[in-house]
Structure formats: structure tokens, C-alpha cells
Write a structure and sequence with these properties.
The chain is mainly beta. It has no helices and 19 strands. Helices cover about 0% and strands about 60% of the residues. It is globular and about 50 Å long.
């Protein structure tokens, strides 16, 4: 079964420190706290720390805004997240400080429990095929897209997305119109071989 979301319609939860909002898209796993995976969008309004998630691998993608600098206290991470739609992977074991690079930003976040699942996150601008995923997710970032896995293709407009919670063998996606502006974020989760 395919689930469909519009990010603009998801309820927003304020951060405890008041620095931003999170809109949770979905999460998976038997335990709601010790999730196997989690997808969300965050809106960051000011400089703030990122909470640590021990045992979790993370990926963050700038959707729009000025971006931010992410730096860990131990110096192992110092990354400028300023290029839109460029995935950045890091360990959730680390506590990071986020410093805005130029005003408020919105970002897409993927978390996976280490030893259970791992996530490949990529951005596509033309025809693409996703194969053999335990969990799959696509987000239309720019333009309009057609996405097909079973039955008729589904059309996605910006900030609309599709989720497959069960294993899927093949998903095909292509821009509804010719580029130049067509961007699709794709998340392919597979079982962690270390598990």
C-alpha cells in the first residue's frame, strides 16, 4: 500500500528550545521511541543545538532557505549545509550545534536505527528507477513528477510525497514536464548487513 502526504498539511511540533518546528512525516518500528526509521521536515528559525540520537544514523537535506553550519563539539563534524538538495550523512551519536548561514531554513531529515536499517538518500532531475527497498520514500522538491510502482502513475507537485512501508521491487519516476527545474528526493532503506 502506498501512503501519500503533503508536507504543508502535516501538523507542526515546536522544538523544546523554541528554535524551530518539526513536521513528522512517518516512522517505523514496533517501539515508537526506539524507532527503526523516521522521516521528518524541520523549520529552523535561529541558531540551536541538534539533539543526539545514540545508535541512529542521520541524513539531512536542505530544502530551502540560507542553510546552516553543523559543527560537533569534538571537531569531527564541521559542515556547511548550504547547497539545496545535497544529502549530508552523519552519526546521531553526536551533539551538533546548528548556526544559520542566512535566515531561516527548512530541511528534510532521515533517521535509521543502526544495525536494523540503512538509508541511501539521493536527488534526481530526470528519469530514475528505484529497486529492492525494504522501505521507500519519494519527495517532489521542484517541478512535477510521475511515480509508478503498481497501477496508474501518481502525480506529485512540490512538497508532496509517497511512502512504501513494505518491501518494493521497483519504483519508476520521471518528470511530468521537461526540465530545467525538476528535482525528486529519493530514500531507499535496506536492512543493515550488520544486523
Amino acid at each position: 500500500m502506498i501512503e501519500r502526504f503533503d508536507l504543508r498539511e502535516l501538523p507542526a511540533q515546536p522544538w523544546k528550545n523554541g528554535a524551530g518546528l518539526t513536521r513528522e512525516i512517518a516512522r517505523g518500528g514496533a517501539d515508537p521511541v526506539e524507532f527503526d526509521w523516521r522521516l521528518s521536515v524541520a523549520e529552523v528559525d535561529r541558531d540551536a543545538p541538534f539533539s543526539a540520537f545514540p545508535g541512529v544514523d542521520r541524513c539531512i537535506v536542505l530544502l530551502h532557505g540560507g542553510g546552516m553550519r553543523l559543527a560537533s563539539t569534538d571537531g569531527s563534524v564541521d559542515h556547511r549545509l548550504v547547497e539545496p538538495l545535497a544529502p549530508f550523512h552523519f552519526s546521531g551519536d553526536l551533539t551538533l550545534a546548528a548556526t544559520l548561514a542566512g535566515g531561516a531554513s527548512a530541511d528534510f531529515n532521515v533517521m535509521t536505527r543502526r544495525g536494523r536499517l540503512r538509508a541511501d538518500v539521493s536527488c534526481h532531475h530526470g528519469d530514475t528507477v528505484l529497486r529492492d527497498a525494504a522501505v521507500a520514500f519519494v519527495l517532489c522538491a521542484e517541478g512535477e513528477w510521475l511515480v509508478e510502482s503498481e497501477g496508474e502513475p501518481q502525480r506529485l507537485e512540490p512538497m508532496q510525497c509517497l511512502l512504501w512501508r513494505a518491501p518494493v521491487e521497483r519504483i519508476k519516476a520521471w518528470p511530468a514536464f521537461a526540465p530545467p527545474v525538476s528535482s525528486l528526493l529519493v530514500v531507499r532503506m535496506c536492512h543493515d548487513p550488520a544486523s
